[in-house]
Amino acid sequence: EEVYIDLVALPAHFSARIGQQLLPFGVTNRMHPHDWPWPQMPLPFATLIGDHGISDVGAVLNYRVHNPWDKALTVQGGLVSGAFFDTDLSDPSPGWLGRAEFFDELGAIELGLGVSAMGLGSQRLEGADLLLRWRGDSWRSVVLIGELIREGAQGDSAAGDLGWVGTLQLQPTRPLYLGVRVDGLGKDTGYGGTLSYYTSEFLRLRLATFTDGDHMRIDGQLTFVWGSHPVEPYWVNR
To answer: Is residue 136 scored above 60 in pLDDT?
Structure first.
Protein backbone atom coordinates (compact mmCIF):
# COMPACT_ATOMS: atom_id res chain seq x y z
CA GLU A 1 0.00 0.00 0.00
CA GLU A 2 2.94 2.33 0.65
CA VAL A 3 6.55 2.12 -0.51
CA TYR A 4 8.41 5.42 -0.24
CA ILE A 5 11.64 7.18 0.71
CA ASP A 6 11.68 10.06 3.22
CA LEU A 7 14.29 12.79 2.73
CA VAL A 8 14.24 14.58 6.07
CA ALA A 9 17.33 16.80 5.92
CA LEU A 10 17.08 18.78 2.69
CA PRO A 11 18.48 22.34 2.65
CA ALA A 12 16.45 25.41 3.74
CA HIS A 13 14.10 23.46 6.04
CA PHE A 14 12.64 21.33 3.24
CA SER A 15 11.82 17.63 3.40
CA ALA A 16 10.30 15.27 0.83
CA ARG A 17 8.58 11.93 0.41
CA ILE A 18 9.00 10.03 -2.87
CA GLY A 19 7.19 6.84 -3.91
CA GLN A 20 3.81 5.14 -3.46
CA GLN A 21 2.13 6.89 -0.52
CA LEU A 22 -1.12 7.89 1.16
CA LEU A 23 -1.37 11.50 0.07
CA PRO A 24 -1.52 14.29 2.70
CA PHE A 25 -5.12 15.21 1.99
CA GLY A 26 -7.01 16.00 5.21
CA VAL A 27 -6.63 13.98 8.41
CA THR A 28 -8.23 10.59 7.77
CA ASN A 29 -6.56 9.92 4.43
CA ARG A 30 -3.05 10.01 5.95
CA MET A 31 -3.75 6.94 8.11
CA HIS A 32 -4.04 3.24 7.31
CA PRO A 33 -7.49 1.72 8.02
CA HIS A 34 -6.30 -0.08 11.16
CA ASP A 35 -5.32 3.32 12.63
CA TRP A 36 -8.72 4.96 12.17
CA PRO A 37 -10.73 5.68 15.32
CA TRP A 38 -13.63 3.77 13.68
CA PRO A 39 -13.78 0.38 11.91
CA GLN A 40 -15.22 1.73 8.65
CA MET A 41 -14.51 4.65 6.31
CA PRO A 42 -16.92 7.59 6.88
CA LEU A 43 -19.74 7.96 4.34
CA PRO A 44 -18.45 10.99 2.36
CA PHE A 45 -14.93 9.58 2.07
CA ALA A 46 -16.14 6.12 1.03
CA THR A 47 -18.24 7.78 -1.68
CA LEU A 48 -15.79 10.41 -2.92
CA ILE A 49 -12.35 8.81 -2.45
CA GLY A 50 -13.04 5.10 -1.85
CA ASP A 51 -12.77 2.72 1.10
CA HIS A 52 -8.97 2.84 1.31
CA GLY A 53 -8.30 6.51 0.66
CA ILE A 54 -6.09 8.26 -1.89
CA SER A 55 -2.78 6.53 -2.52
CA ASP A 56 -0.61 7.45 -5.50
CA VAL A 57 2.93 7.39 -6.87
CA GLY A 58 4.76 10.70 -6.84
CA ALA A 59 6.82 13.20 -4.89
CA VAL A 60 5.59 15.53 -2.14
CA LEU A 61 7.76 18.43 -0.95
CA ASN A 62 7.27 19.84 2.58
CA TYR A 63 8.33 23.25 3.86
CA ARG A 64 8.19 24.41 7.46
CA VAL A 65 7.40 28.12 7.28
CA HIS A 66 9.37 30.21 9.76
CA ASN A 67 7.37 33.05 11.25
CA PRO A 68 7.80 35.65 14.03
CA TRP A 69 5.15 33.95 16.20
CA ASP A 70 7.08 30.66 16.27
CA LYS A 71 3.99 28.69 15.25
CA ALA A 72 4.01 25.42 13.32
CA LEU A 73 2.97 26.27 9.76
CA THR A 74 3.65 23.69 7.06
CA VAL A 75 3.12 23.98 3.31
CA GLN A 76 3.15 20.91 1.06
CA GLY A 77 3.09 20.54 -2.70
CA GLY A 78 3.54 17.58 -4.98
CA LEU A 79 3.22 15.94 -8.37
CA VAL A 80 1.67 12.47 -8.65
CA SER A 81 0.60 10.11 -11.41
CA GLY A 82 -3.01 11.29 -11.18
CA ALA A 83 -4.40 7.76 -10.98
CA PHE A 84 -7.17 8.91 -8.61
CA PHE A 85 -8.73 10.97 -11.43
CA ASP A 86 -7.45 8.93 -14.39
CA THR A 87 -7.48 5.25 -13.38
CA ASP A 88 -6.09 3.93 -16.69
CA LEU A 89 -3.43 6.72 -16.84
CA SER A 90 -4.47 7.74 -20.35
CA ASP A 91 -3.69 11.41 -19.60
CA PRO A 92 0.11 11.97 -19.75
CA SER A 93 -0.15 15.07 -17.54
CA PRO A 94 0.73 14.61 -13.85
CA GLY A 95 -1.73 15.31 -11.08
CA TRP A 96 -0.99 17.97 -8.47
CA LEU A 97 -1.44 18.26 -4.73
CA GLY A 98 -1.30 21.17 -2.29
CA ARG A 99 -1.83 21.45 1.45
CA ALA A 100 -1.30 24.09 4.17
CA GLU A 101 -1.45 23.18 7.85
CA PHE A 102 -1.29 25.18 11.07
CA PHE A 103 -0.62 23.59 14.46
CA ASP A 104 -0.31 25.14 17.91
CA GLU A 105 -0.28 24.08 21.56
CA LEU A 106 -2.19 26.12 24.11
CA GLY A 107 -1.33 24.52 27.42
CA ALA A 108 -3.06 21.12 27.49
CA ILE A 109 -4.92 21.91 24.24
CA GLU A 110 -3.57 21.12 20.77
CA LEU A 111 -5.09 22.80 17.71
CA GLY A 112 -4.61 21.82 14.08
CA LEU A 113 -6.16 23.50 11.01
CA GLY A 114 -5.60 22.43 7.43
CA VAL A 115 -6.76 22.97 3.85
CA SER A 116 -6.04 20.57 0.98
CA ALA A 117 -6.59 20.45 -2.77
CA MET A 118 -5.59 18.10 -5.58
CA GLY A 119 -6.45 17.85 -9.24
CA LEU A 120 -5.78 16.72 -12.78
CA GLY A 121 -6.84 18.87 -15.71
CA SER A 122 -10.30 20.29 -14.97
CA GLN A 123 -10.98 17.78 -12.16
CA ARG A 124 -10.41 18.79 -8.58
CA LEU A 125 -10.91 17.61 -4.99
CA GLU A 126 -10.92 20.11 -2.11
CA GLY A 127 -10.95 19.71 1.64
CA ALA A 128 -10.59 21.42 5.01
CA ASP A 129 -9.99 19.91 8.44
CA LEU A 130 -9.93 20.72 12.15
CA LEU A 131 -8.26 18.73 14.95
CA LEU A 132 -8.68 19.78 18.57
CA ARG A 133 -7.30 17.68 21.41
CA TRP A 134 -7.22 18.17 25.18
CA ARG A 135 -4.89 15.96 27.20
CA GLY A 136 -5.24 16.19 30.96
CA ASP A 137 -2.67 13.42 31.46
CA SER A 138 -1.92 9.97 30.01
CA TRP A 139 -5.26 8.73 31.41
CA ARG A 140 -7.70 11.38 30.18
CA SER A 141 -8.22 13.12 26.84
CA VAL A 142 -10.84 14.61 24.53
CA VAL A 143 -10.47 14.73 20.74
CA LEU A 144 -12.66 16.66 18.29
CA ILE A 145 -12.20 16.14 14.53
CA GLY A 146 -14.02 17.85 11.68
CA GLU A 147 -13.41 17.37 7.97
CA LEU A 148 -15.01 18.82 4.82
CA ILE A 149 -14.55 17.39 1.33
CA ARG A 150 -15.93 18.34 -2.07
CA GLU A 151 -15.47 17.31 -5.67
CA GLY A 152 -15.06 20.26 -7.98
CA ALA A 153 -14.22 21.22 -11.52
CA GLN A 154 -12.54 24.17 -13.19
CA GLY A 155 -14.69 27.23 -12.55
CA ASP A 156 -16.86 25.18 -10.16
CA SER A 157 -19.36 24.64 -13.01
CA ALA A 158 -19.65 21.00 -12.00
CA ALA A 159 -19.06 21.21 -8.25
CA GLY A 160 -20.30 18.15 -6.39
CA ASP A 161 -22.02 17.73 -3.06
CA LEU A 162 -20.25 18.85 0.09
CA GLY A 163 -19.30 15.98 2.40
CA TRP A 164 -18.49 16.37 6.08
CA VAL A 165 -17.51 14.29 9.10
CA GLY A 166 -17.60 15.26 12.77
CA THR A 167 -16.10 13.06 15.50
CA LEU A 168 -15.94 13.50 19.27
CA GLN A 169 -13.92 11.04 21.35
CA LEU A 170 -13.64 10.86 25.15
CA GLN A 171 -11.01 8.94 27.13
CA PRO A 172 -12.35 8.61 30.69
CA THR A 173 -9.54 6.25 31.74
CA ARG A 174 -6.33 5.01 30.18
CA PRO A 175 -7.46 1.87 28.28
CA LEU A 176 -10.97 3.06 27.30
CA TYR A 177 -12.09 5.36 24.46
CA LEU A 178 -15.71 6.34 23.74
CA GLY A 179 -16.59 8.08 20.49
CA VAL A 180 -19.48 9.41 18.42
CA ARG A 181 -19.39 10.29 14.72
CA VAL A 182 -21.80 12.13 12.41
CA ASP A 183 -21.41 11.96 8.59
CA GLY A 184 -23.04 13.95 5.85
CA LEU A 185 -22.96 13.98 2.05
CA GLY A 186 -25.47 16.23 0.32
CA LYS A 187 -28.84 15.34 1.83
CA ASP A 188 -27.64 11.98 3.21
CA THR A 189 -26.58 11.77 6.86
CA GLY A 190 -25.58 9.04 9.28
CA TYR A 191 -24.34 8.68 12.82
CA GLY A 192 -22.78 6.08 15.08
CA GLY A 193 -20.69 5.34 18.13
CA THR A 194 -17.56 3.39 19.06
CA LEU A 195 -16.11 1.81 22.17
CA SER A 196 -12.39 0.95 22.02
CA TYR A 197 -10.48 -0.89 24.75
CA TYR A 198 -6.71 -1.46 24.88
CA THR A 199 -5.55 -4.46 26.87
CA SER A 200 -2.02 -3.26 26.02
CA GLU A 201 -0.34 -1.19 23.30
CA PHE A 202 -0.31 -4.39 21.20
CA LEU A 203 -3.97 -5.42 21.44
CA ARG A 204 -7.18 -3.41 20.92
CA LEU A 205 -10.81 -4.52 21.09
CA ARG A 206 -13.56 -2.40 19.51
CA LEU A 207 -17.33 -2.40 19.20
CA ALA A 208 -19.03 0.08 16.86
CA THR A 209 -22.46 0.84 15.46
CA PHE A 210 -23.54 3.10 12.61
CA THR A 211 -26.90 3.97 11.05
CA ASP A 212 -27.84 5.95 7.94
CA GLY A 213 -31.50 6.19 8.86
CA ASP A 214 -32.55 3.09 6.91
CA HIS A 215 -30.04 0.49 8.05
CA MET A 216 -28.00 -0.12 11.20
CA ARG A 217 -24.59 -1.74 11.09
CA ILE A 218 -22.76 -3.28 14.06
CA ASP A 219 -19.02 -4.06 13.86
CA GLY A 220 -16.66 -5.92 16.16
CA GLN A 221 -12.94 -5.45 15.62
CA LEU A 222 -9.77 -7.01 16.99
CA THR A 223 -6.46 -5.29 16.18
CA PHE A 224 -3.11 -6.69 17.29
CA VAL A 225 0.54 -5.92 16.64
CA TRP A 226 3.50 -8.30 16.49
CA GLY A 227 6.86 -6.79 17.37
CA SER A 228 7.69 -3.10 17.16
CA HIS A 229 5.16 -0.61 15.80
CA PRO A 230 5.20 2.99 14.55
CA VAL A 231 4.00 5.96 16.57
CA GLU A 232 0.33 5.56 17.46
CA PRO A 233 -2.16 7.88 15.72
CA TYR A 234 -3.20 11.28 17.06
CA TRP A 235 -6.36 10.01 18.77
CA VAL A 236 -4.49 7.57 21.08
CA ASN A 237 -3.29 9.18 24.31
CA ARG A 238 -0.36 7.51 26.14
So the answer is: yes
